[in-house]
Amino acid sequence: MASLIPETTQKLFNPETLRSAAKQSERCLIVPVRLRRAIKRYIREQDEPHMKRKVLRLSESLSEIKGVNRMLTESSSKERFEDPFKSMEQSKRWKIKSAYGDIGLKYRDDESIAYVASRMPAVYSACYRVLSEVRRRLPGFSPARVLDFGAGTGSAFWALREVWPRSLEKVNIVEPSQSMQRAGQSLTQGLENLPLIHSYDSIQALSKDIKKSEREHDLVIASYVLGEIPSLKDRITIVRQLWDLTGDVLVLVEPGTPQGFSIISQMRSHILWMEKRKSRKSEARKSKGVNNKNSNEVATLRSGVHIVAPCPHDGRCPLVNSGKYCHFVQRLQRTTSQRASKHTKGKPLRGFEDEKFCFVAFRRGQRPREPWPLDGMEFDTLKEQNAKRNPEDLEIDYEDLLKLQAEAEDRRHELVNPVYYDSDGDDDVDKDLEVEEKEDKTGRANVGGGWGRIIFGPVQRGRQVTMDVCRSIKRDCSEGTFEHVVMTRTKNPILHRLARKSFWGDLWPF
User: Which residues pair with 328 in a beta bridge?
Assistant: First the structure.
């Protein structure tokens, strides 16, 4: 296998760059200065009493909606997800005009204020984590035209500005709640270099307002919204409409609950099934000799779909009907507004919270074929490593050891000291602050490279590390599996060290 790989490709990864390429998780995220200040200013302007009570009522309302949606019958669309890859004759194509906004909770002023104070930083952190991975997996992707469906108060928009600060030109927002739209506009006051922003209350209004040639967006994102739509039939219709408006990448994000995973899994299966059916129809037309050169060229550019993240393959999800659900977690430091509005039931409030989420990112076109990360790479066994040791390296310099211990102790104290949000003060928004796009110059784990995904947190038992990994079992990434991987130092010291440093959500090189 190694002989078939170009020499430049073999040098792409080495034992030192595997870790930097595999790292996808974000440690404890700190909400940006601008957003913290904007939230605090907005809440101060509203001057709403009994904030904790309103936040608690919002949380109870959201939980009630999720419970009702879970009990709804799935009627005509249920069979489609039991086997989304059935033949065309067994599934009927249907179209329904559905306006987003027919949900159990109408976001009025009280709910919008409570949402900004309690939920917006957490939703922002999940969106930032997802979009950051899309940028790392697709280094050449820089969206200019973006559609934010179910935008709410603009959590995804703030994440977009942090991830791609220089490429955004136009952002279309679909949000039926006028109160949420007003809150989002208020939060962006005073920001410089904003892209052109248009707000709509439905997809239908968006489609009527813009030209047909402008309907395709480089990036379409729908975060924390599909779970609030009661009907599964409407969810499918909306996702189909969003996919039609997608020119390149579609991102769906939901809470990290069994219901959130179910929604993401259903939408994932449906889009893959839908594109597979289109390709079958296209092949059938070609076999019949029906050719149109211009239409075929356009269809080739748009045909096909593959998963950017988190799935390492485009086959059936191996966790379906397994009793487990694929979700991830992002830790964030609580903002001043969260610390002031959270209901703690008499217990001391922690300085951080963990936001669990599920997501999937699609991209149009066929998955690229790239060498897998371990192709052509040779690892020394533990015996070989020990044989190569220089006896002089085993001697201990106690002065250097004491110096290293002192430095480690200083770093430990720096980590445990609390971070004070001086920027949450009453100063105006600092307009001179510039958002710099982070450049990752280390190795990249590209989409076609056969990287697996660590689904749950690795567990260390003595000298062995156990991980649950979702990975592709075919070179074309058309089929995947879920495996329990055990790494020991004796088996492979390099990968064992990599496993010890891995976190929930990171990639794995096979």
Answer: 357
